[in-house]
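Re: Re: token formats

Sure, here are both.
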Amino acid sequence: MSEASPQEGKQSLLEMLKAMVQARASDIHLQAGAPPVIRVDGKLKPFGNRPLTPKDLEAIAKA
């Protein structure tokens, strides 16, 4: 997602939320320059390995 549109951000957010439910995660941490991180049973775990770009985060925020 280099030049992510709001629609791509919405799809990405929905995919992340679905995966979080399956993993029984309580929260997600999103930061530009780092891959997403989720909290499962009080522990932070990597959620993917691709760092998010500022454009990714902008698209997710606009979703």
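Second one below.
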Amino acid sequence: MTTEPDPKALPLPADIAKLSFEDAMTELEKLVR
């Protein structure tokens, strides 16, 4: 069994930034309502 990390399993930094940004916008919408 290899302990090499699977590139496909690791999320891209861009995906993480986009996800966190979308989460922040969702939280803002909750506060506005």
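DSSP finds one helix and no strands in the chain. Helices lie at 13-32.
- S.
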